[in-house]
Amino acid sequence: MRPIALGCDHAGYDLKEFVKNHLLSTDREIEDFGTYGPESVDYPDYGMRVAGMIDRGEYERGILICGTGLGMSMVANRFPGVRAALCNDLFSAIMSRRHNDANILVMGGRVIGTELAKQIVETWIDTRFEGGRHRTRLEKFC
Ligand code: RB5
């Protein structure tokens, strides 16, 4: 898999650092597009940066984290080539790949803990798109 683009705001910073370290410790390639500290920032700046790169095909997959995951989802899904899925549970993470071919995983740093986030990330990276009728459905709006 090509490198995964990471982005977050201040509310997602701690979880982004955790996810980044986990991915690096399992030999995944990542690119961290910030934010790089806990100081208050605006989530659209970081969401647009990562979503824009996915939209342009510069990265295949991304992970965005803000406080709830809601703002990052809204921002990312404004880009035509982006299918961002807010997954604060494992079932959503699985289905977002199987049925929706999600290319950005969004999580809420104020919603879930690190162990669940680790499982969500692992599952989301490893789960394949099923294609078939799900591709037909995606083609209706992508
Ligand atoms: C920041 O306080 C918070 O609003 C942001 O991280 C996110 O949850 C927005 O949807």
What characteristics describe this protein?
142 residues, alpha/beta, Ribose 5-phosphate Isomerase B, Chain: A, 5-stranded parallel beta sheet, binds D-ribose
Q: Would you give an account of this structure?
A:
- The chain is an alpha/beta fold and about 140 residues long.
- It has a single domain, classed as Ribose 5-phosphate Isomerase B, Chain: A (3-Layer(aba) Sandwich).
- It is built from six helices and five strands.
- A five-stranded parallel sheet has the order 2-1-3-5-4, sandwiched between helices.
- Helix 1 (about 15-25) crosses helix 5 and helix 2 (about 45-55) runs parallel beside helix 3 (about 70-75).
- It is globular and about 45 Å long.
- The model has no long low-confidence stretch (mean pLDDT about 95).
- The protein binds D-ribose.
- D-ribose binds next to helix 3.
SSE topology:
Blueprint: E1 4-8, H1 13-25, E2 30-32, H2 43-55, E3 61-66, H3 70-76, E4 84-86, H4 90-98, E5 104-108, H5 114-126, H6 133-139
Parallel strand pairs: 1-2, 1-3, 3-5, 4-5
What's this entry about, in short?
By secondary structure, the chain is of the alpha/beta class. The chain is 44% helix and 15% strand.
